Amino acid sequence: MISFEEISFLINEGDSVVVNGDALSVLKCFPSDSVQCVVTSPPYWGVRDYNVDGQVGHEATIDEYIANLVAIFMEVKRIMRADGVMWLNIGDVYTSGNRGYRCIDKKSSARKMLFRPGTPSGLKRKDLIGLPWRLALELQKMGWYLRCDIIWNKPNSLPESVKDRPCRSHEYVFMFSKNESYYYDNSFMRVKGLGGKMKNINSVWNVKTKKSGLSHYAAFPEDLIGGCILATSRDEEYVLDPFFGIGTVGLICEKNNRRYLGVEINSDYIDMSLNDRLLDCKVL
């Protein structure tokens, strides 16, 4: 396990660092007030199996899942600077109808799961859980400022084989701040409007999904989070992703003169970020 002294030394040296371990345990070793911006997408509840013991997303109940994420993001809040911002991407899920497994999906073999949590208390078979808002409101209750709910519309989303509801083609990106006032450079959040005039970006973002070419099925696209990083961090400041995956946050940071801290429980994904994406960072 890493030590507080070890990670503090590397941060003081200005190194980008990725730590192999579970998010909550590792984050407790990070110094307070050390990161400016957080961009992350935690594993969704009961959707994929990343084949690692202790992974988030395999909790038996939705309440346990949300409680685990709240504990992680309260550590994130401690680590973040006073004027910091967090961007949290998370999608919704349906109840399982108490099926204890998920069949293989022709479009994504990673969706096959031998374990699937039961239907939460108070919900019914076929209910949409409302998971993103349950988490967002709980974080708001714990002191985070909920500043914006962004709809990530996926123009190239995979079709669903359903006949009794519309196909879902969006996820949420929540913008949170630690305090009422925070750093936000609006010039990175403007788009061309009618007549070519620049205007503030709205809260519906049309961003296509892109395959990474690696064995990770849930990496968010660079186009989704690039503006988030640039708008809420300055040159050479630290950006944190406590669910680092194959390192999309690190990739964007290296392209834009930011430093980064990542935590990833699956060592195979860290290997991919180093060997296939050629990230230049210290690994602990």
Could you give the order of the helices and strands?
HEHEHEHEEEEEHEHEHE
Task: Give the tally of structural domains.
Answer: 1
Give the overall pLDDT as a whole number.
88
- The secondary-structure class comes to alpha/beta
- The radius of gyration computed from the alpha-carbon positions, rounded to a whole number of angstroms, is 19 Å
How would you sum up the global shape?
Answer: globular
CATH class: Alpha Beta
Number of strands: 11
CATH superfamily: Vaccinia Virus protein VP39
- What is the CATH topology assignment? Rossmann fold
Strand content: 15-25%
Write structural notes for this entry.
With about 280 residues, this protein is α/β, with parallel strands linked by helices. The protein has a single domain (about 5-95, about 130-284), classed as Rossmann fold. Helices cover about 25% and strands about 20% of the residues. It contains 7 helices and 11 strands. The chain has a 9-stranded mixed β-sheet with strand order 8-4-5-3-2-9-10-1-11, sandwiched between helices. Strands 6-7 form a two-stranded antiparallel sheet. It is globular, with a radius of gyration of 19 Å. The chain starts with a helix and ends with a strand. The mean pLDDT is about 90.
Keywords:
nine-stranded mixed beta sheet; alpha/beta; 284 residues
Detail the topology: elements first, then pairings.
Elements: H1 4-13, E1 17-20, H2 23-27, E2 35-40, H3 62-79, E3 80-90, H4 131-141, E4 145-153, E5 170-177, E6 190-192, E7 198-200, E8 204-206, H5 222-231, E9 238-241, H6 248-255, E10 259-264, H7 267-275, E11 282-283
Parallel strand pairs: 1-10, 1-11, 2-3, 2-9, 4-8, 9-10
Antiparallel strand pairs: 3-5, 4-5, 6-7
Helix pairs in contact: 3-4, 5-6
